[in-house]
TrEMBL record:
Residue ranges, compositional bias (Basic and acidic residues): 34-56
Domain of life, per lineage: Bacteria
Protein name, per record: Uncharacterized protein
Source species: Saccharothrix syringae
Region span, Disordered: 26-140
Compositional bias annotation for Low complexity: 78-92
Length: 140
């Protein structure tokens, strides 16, 4: 009986040692993952703030980005939409340039001085009265 109890004690000791090693490995992996996530978060903030210099980082290829996005989506992880690498690595536009681009659209065309005809072809009565709220003025 002594051999069986010794074998059981050795088994329990080996099992305890294996569980301890597994817990240490899991903790170390968690620490590495947390550090990598923090580095990624910092890089993403720098990219959003346009603080990335072109010489410091090489752009990730579109294929690798597509595969990584698919991997994250398949596992239900969040996928942050960042601008393309060329845009992130280009120097930021000046405020004047952005305003000029925003205001460069032509004004909408004027369609006509009179409203279009109604369903039976009648044109609404054109009166100079600003307070004319008749149905013809509202609907047509």
């Amino acid at each position: 009986m002594s051999a069986i109890s010794d074998a059981a004690a050795r088994f329990r000791a080996d099992l305890d040692a294996a569980v301890t090693r597994a817990r240490r490995a899991a903790a170390a992996a968690g620490d590495r993952t947390a550090a990598q996530r923090e580095r990624n978060r910092g890089l993403a903030e720098r990219a959003r703030g346009r603080a990335v210099r072109p010489g410091d980082h090489a752009a990730t290829s579109a294929d690798v980005q597509r595969v990584a996005d698919g991997f994250r989506r398949d596992r239900g992880l969040p996928v942050e939409a960042l601008p393309p690498a060329a845009e992130l690595l280009s120097p930021p536009k000046s405020r004047e340039q952005m305003d000029a681009n925003a205001n460069s659209a032509p004004p909408p065309p004027r369609l006509g001085s009179r409203p279009p005809a109604g369903p039976k072809g009648q044109l609404p009565v054109d009166t100079p009265d600003d307070e004319d709220f008749s149905q013809a003025r509202i609907l047509y």
